[in-house]
Write a structure and sequence with these properties.
Blueprint (H helix, E strand, L loop, with lengths): L18 E9 L1 H4 L9 E10 L3 E12 L2 E14 L6 E13 L6 E3 L3 E11 L5 E12 L10 E14 L4 E11 L7 E5 L2 E5 L11 E11 L12 E13 L1
Antiparallel strand pairs: 1-2, 1-14, 2-3, 3-4, 4-5, 5-6, 5-7, 7-8, 8-9, 9-10, 10-11, 10-12, 11-13, 12-13, 13-14
């Protein structure tokens, strides 16, 4: 399975523009690691961020593909409510959930879904070219009957950043999640997914082409399941990616 939990990629501001995009990632994990040869090679991501007078809403859906069809899906939806006049402090609530398919039987397996809640602090530069957010959240995992895992309480710390430079040509963005899980070695899971994009609409004559090309690198510890049924290793898994932004 590609992902059991993913995390927040929430924009660290409540600016006046909504943003939606579709991403296509070719995942190199199955080529770089022998114990990940069954890892899905393609992922599509649909992402939306929409601010309003009370705060903001963010959601995304990942769909993973094998050569013969869809292998799994995952989605998150989060809402922030501003609690300070400068909109830097917010109350954050979130839901995570998804499923994957067994390669032998094609039966669907549910991820252990979760809800999260806690404070968030958001910052941005005057022109929104630099953004940063941090969230400290209580996390509740619901019971998963398929895995025979009971409900339990957890804690998650999330950092999100964005940096646009070179007159808008380049964007460096991403997140880092750390959360408690007593079932893994050391009791903590860490995953970060930095992305680097070249924004082609900044090139002369390409202003109507809202296409970006680049890469994402999934850096994780105790997160990715290998073919031996283990998830206690470190992996650095890059992708080759394209993104179309709707404006």
């Amino acid at each position: 399975m590609k992902r059991i939990l993913a995390s927040m990629a929430l924009m660290a501001c409540t600016c006046s523009l909504a943003a939606q995009n579709v991403q296509l990632h070719y995942d190199l994990g199955h080529s770089l690691y022998k114990d990940l040869s069954n890892r899905p090679s393609m992922t599509t991501t649909v992402e939306m961020f929409k601010p309003d007078q009370w705060g903001s809403t963010y959601m995304f859906t990942d769909i993973d593909y094998q050569r013969d069809g869809v292998a799994g899906a995952y989605w998150e939806i989060a809402r922030e409510f501003n609690v300070s006049k400068n909109k830097q402090w917010a109350a954050h609530v979130e839901y995570n959930g998804g499923l994957t398919s067994d390669e032998d039987t094609w039966a669907a397996t549910r991820f252990q879904h979760a809800i999260l809640a806690g404070p968030a602090w958001n910052w941005h530069s005057a022109d929104f070219s630099r953004t940063f957010s941090i969230q400290a959240m209580y996390k509740y995992y619901f019971k998963n009957r398929h895995w025979n895992v009971g409900a339990f309480n957890s804690f998650q710390l999330t950092e999100v950043w964005g940096l646009t430079f070179a007159k808008g040509l380049c964007t460096f963005s991403g997140f880092c999640d750390t959360w408690y899980d007593s079932s893994v070695k050391g009791n903590w899971i860490i995953v970060s997914e930095p992305q680097f994009w070249f924004n082609l609409n900044t090139i002369k004559g390409w202003n109507k082409v809202n296409l970006s090309v680049g890469s994402e690198v999934e850096l994780s510890h105790n997160f990715v399941w290998n073919e031996r049924g283990e998830h206690n290793s470190f992996y650095a898994i890059p992708t080759i990616a394209a993104k179309w932004t709707f404006k």
